[in-house]
Specification:
By secondary structure, this protein is mainly β. It has one helix and 25 strands. It has one helix at 49-52; strands at residues 3-6, 34-37, 57-60, 64-67, 87-90, 95-113, 121-128, 135-141, 150-169, 174-186, 211-215, 227-229, 236-239, 249-254, 266-272, 281-290, 300-308, 317-322, 325-330, 336-342, 349-356, 365-370, 373-380, 390-398, 406-416. Strands 3, 4, 5, 6, 7, 8, 9 and 10 form an eight-stranded antiparallel beta sheet that branches. Strands 11, 13, 14, 16, 21, 22, 23 and 25 form an eight-stranded antiparallel beta sheet that branches. The radius of gyration is 23 Å and the shape is elongated. It starts with a strand and ends in a 16-residue tail after the last strand.
Length: 432
Amino acid sequence: MKKTLLLVGTLLGMGSAGCGTPDDASLESGDSPIEVDGLESQDSQEVSAAALTTTGCTQLTAKSVISNGHDGNVPANTMDSNLGTRWSRLGRGSWVDYDLGSLKQVSGVSVAWHEGNKRSNEFFVSVSPDGYTYTQVYSGKSSGKTTAAETYSFPTITTRRVRVTFLSNTLNEWASIAEARACSSTSTTQPPPTEEPPPTEGPQPGTGSSVVWVGDFETNSRSQWSSTQMVSADRLALVTSPARQGRYALKATVRRGDDPINASGNRNELVRMTREPVGSEYYYRFSTMFDSSFPSAKTWQLFTQWHHEGNSGSPPVEFYVYGEEIRLNIGGNPGTIVWRTPLVRGRWLDFIFHVKWSPDSKVGFVELYLDGKLVLPKRYIATQYRGQLNYLKVGLYRNDTVSPVGIVYHDGWTMARKLEDVISPTAVFKAP
């Protein structure tokens, strides 16, 4: 009898060492190399054509899949037509998100839960036409009786992205999905057990998203980020409204005198140790909203910055507000203001920032999209200081002369290597 050795927890190579370890470095409790019997059985999770194809689901093939973290069992495993692999992540709010490539009619999802015969999973399904605004269309629990896929139906809706969000299960706090598919139609009619499932066009091995990191706060925590610089938790609070996508966003508040790191200015910021290597190229998607009360001051108020590893001096890349303008400055102080636009309060602004990181002005460049439009064509400029890598800081950091309370909202942070993995699918990208 042939047996296969499954090494649970093998890391997916992302092609760059600059982003460190996965967001969740621990393995699911009890995981270890296991032997899987070559014959079909629920306990072994062996591949079964009948188990992979849920009755009553006309499957759609996703073009890519992302998640808000993993333990080494990556989200692409949920598209490999193999019940012996899985995506896993610890914690309530863990999700996988499938891009169908274009707007499709969707009326349900088919999910095969890892060890689904041992635990019932509570979850919900949300959909989005553009990757920004998500609508919940289903909530419920798996049966807890089978490792085969189950279909969960909802009223037909036109969407491009389908997201399955884990809430809890009856055994532990691990989200763990072996396979998942969106359904173009669903039916409760059961075909005969001996009926062969129709062939499906599965993804090729190794395909998937180029997303490196997601910091969209859908964990209802700051756990996707490396650390905080804040005087108290209320200064970097998770809120449900306003939210640009999903259920949560970050509300960053700064009051005069807030100085958590005993440095210049007042701040409350999140830190992500991105440390992009010299010569690396990334796209960053993020959404920002300035509160209607956001102060107007003829001085700097940073809301996003890539800071160098040194402790002093202005960062090489910074988005900030000056008076009634939003500006992008490259090169520190004085640096070069490469883009500016009027400050808008009370509305989400959707940014896609394209960067090649280099201290060489003939190699490094920046490019910027705002609300689906190209507002800064590719401009070659040094984006790093020599000998120093950068890391990301998000929140609010401002001159300590500003007195009124400042509030900025952040959401949807995604870092990827390809534009298509951060772009809003419904946006029309145009030159300025």
